[in-house]
Amino acid sequence: MGAENSHWHLELNYDQWVALSVSGSRPSARYKHAAAVVDTKLYISGGSRNGRYLSDVQVFDLETLAWSSLKLSTEPNVDKINDSLPREILPATSGHSMFKWGNKLLLVGGHSKNISANLSVWFIDLESHHCGVAETTGKVPVARGGQSLTLVGSKLIMFGGEDGHRQLMNDVHILDMETMTWDVLAATQTPPAPRFDHTAAVHAERYLLIFGGCSHSIFFNDLHVLDLETMEWSQPQIQGDLVTPRAGHAGITIDENWYIVGGGDNRSGAPETLVLNMSKLVMTVLTSVGGRDPLASEGVSLSSVLLDGEEILVAFGGYNGKYNNEAYVMRPKPRDSPHPKIFQSPAAAAAAASVTAAYALSKSGKLEFSEMEDLNIKLAQGNGSQWDLASDITAIREEKKMLESALAKVRADNSSFKGKIDETTGTHADLSKELHSVQGQLNAERSRCAKLEAQISELQKMLESSPSIEEEVQLLRKQKSAWEHDMELASAVQRQSSGGVWKWMSR
């Protein structure tokens, strides 16, 4: 898709990835870089290639489809320790995170050749292109890479990662962007196992979702949820399509839908593009690509850009046996919110998400309304919100009816599938019996064929020896003829001799 059409995104089919034909040169291929969108421009920083960390910042204009390199400089008031030594404006980093805050891009964490004890926060001023280290205070976390960072209002939430000594973590830290102060969040219940290269999202400004990632030996496909108000971890069951374990994937949220791309397990890349409805906790495979496609890569980045009022997904880079530097775009099909009334306030959104999650976890497939009502009232009291409980309870009643209807349909479909499975099982048993019978007949035929082959072999040997037998017969016939001739001669001689003797005696 070329850059000659500034409205190129309107030509895209829904839910299908397309590689963009860019003008000019592309940035070097890489993975485990960081990406962020500002207005209609995609910013790419750092990453890794062939074991070497990168420090450049590249900009992709999503209107002109042209790449450019961002030239950085240090702030004018930064003192140089030693002018004779070259200063690294932005450290070469991999496995870091980047996001927009005000008129700056903030780069957090990541691995670099210079191992430090504490986590650093770098900034890039988008107007002056000055670069430097942002000063932070409080309980500064240990330096790490492969962590997840999620912005909730003015709070930046960080989970997990791997430090410079390859120690894995599952801690939660929060950076207050107003005061640039770090703090540790203490949560109850069972947290996710320590991991890195996972992805995270926030739903309804309250629930932190963690999906996938890996340890040094295990790849995960689990979902964990941290309630940021009660500070309790839970592990709800994902409904819908089953997904394979993965790490190094990327995610972005649009409304209540969480889009997830790429990742892998060090053997193969994950070809599916997933979408998780965060209210219903239902996972859907949106589309799939080939196993060697650049989108089936680890260390890929995923962003979204608003073009003409429409959100477009943008994926870049990654590694799947080959480093990639292509930009792919997708036009996600609009998905109507199933909760138009409930999602009028954060508290209502939280209530709906909790009710739906509880419904999904119910083994019986049915919750009594009194339980949902009690849950909803508790959430309302805990939040101190002023929304109208009566209208929301009515909305929940309607949703309960809808879910029960859907559950009844699923049960009917399951019953139908069970009948078909039973029928198929019976057919399989009959076919197995017939197969055994045919196999017995086949074995008997094989035995008979073996005997016939043995007889044929004997006959062939006899046929091969028949010329010599015929020669022997002819020789015997000649010998017999000669013997008979000799006998006749001998008989004649004997007669003659015998006649003379009797003749002489008779005289």
TrEMBL record:
Which superkingdom does the taxonomy of this entry point to? Eukaryota
Q: Which keywords are on file for this protein?
A: Coiled coil, Kelch repeat, Repeat
Q: Does the keyword DNA repair apply?
A: no
Start and end residues of each Acyl-CoA-binding domain: 391-492
| Coiled-coil zones | 393-462
Q: What is this protein called?
A: Acyl-CoA-binding domain-containing protein
Q: Which species expresses this protein natively?
A: Rhododendron griersonianum
